[in-house]
Design goal:
globular; 8 helices
Amino acid sequence: MNRSIHWTTSAGRASAAGSDAPALPRFRSLPDPGLPADQVGRQGWQLTDLLLPALTLRAGAIEHNVALHARWCASVGVSQAPHAKTHLSPEIVRLQLDSGAWGMSAATVHQARLLAAIGAPRVLIAHEVVDAANIAALARLEGSHPGTVVMTLVDSVEGVAALEQHLVAAASTRPLPVLVELGVPGGRSGARDLDALEVLAGAVHASPSLVLAGVEGFEGILPVGRTPEHLRTVDDYLAGLAAAAARLDGRGYFDAVEEIVLTAGGSVYPDRVAAIDVPRLSRPVRVVVRSGATATHDHGPSSANAPLAAEAAHPLGALRPALDLWVAVVSTPEPGLALAAFGKRDAPYDSHPPVVLEVRRDGEGVDAGAVTVERMNDQHGFLAHPDTLRVGDVVRLGPCHPCTAFDKWPLVAVLDDDDRVVGAATTWF
């Protein structure tokens, strides 16, 4: 029997039978999975109405974190372009822009398109773009959002040639601002030394399709810690970024811009970026940090190294973990082992398994001090416990890496401090 399969969906409708079939359920933790996201906070729902597992966002914590990070940036004289790839949520992007973000960072051209549509005045694609389709989309983006300045990275003369070739083929109408990237030997992308970076910058300067806008790096690839040795390694790398900017400025390579962008700074070392000894150059230097995880913070060991972590006792205050994953215990098949209904599709596992924060039984808290997540598979979390857990218990987990938490959830319910569902953050990965 032949049936026409409609691969293109419309308004959430798709089936082998045709486009008049009922809308497919979309948001898995909501009682009504097809409810528009902007109506979620108007239903009078509580946490206990959500289908578990459910990832939730605490409104008070994320609003506090975004405002605190903005105050910190202002206090140390740096601009921020938070990395949206952490959450890729229009609602959170707007919160960050409303708090004074100079721009937003992206990992891909698709993410840059979303940020431009949301209204970001500047988008820094912290990645190289070399393939024809993405470069053509980049050219279209510049044409469709002339009010948004989009920048991207280059780390090779071959990458410069690819940008120039495909921008010309796409009939791009204005030069594309690019930043040259300085890497480290054995690390990820980026020119490996200042000599290679100078050759690269010269190629950008000579291109009629590109304009050199600054120098970029990412110190987050270095070993994480706050010992003098850790900080010295980070500071040496960041000093290399400043030296690169001075060297390229001395060659006249920034003659087409009004300011020079010097950018680094993930969520662990933005304070070291703010402390860079920026040289006096031919035009103003704008230091930009790109911290993405500060919006939600997290429970992993790396979070303790952030300058606004509670452990740092910063006078401006401390970031608060804003993400929780609520899961149900579904089996206690043998002593010391409980199985909870969540797995790798629900929670990050690339850095550390989630941290057990709380156990509730019939709405009341019970001792969770010795309960730990030992491992995860696709649909189950294996919890070790000293005969503490019972079938039906609800466990609150703290994700350890927000950058791989949001992408698993097209909608994250937002809770107030009384566990009322007050809204939703959508994601667009």
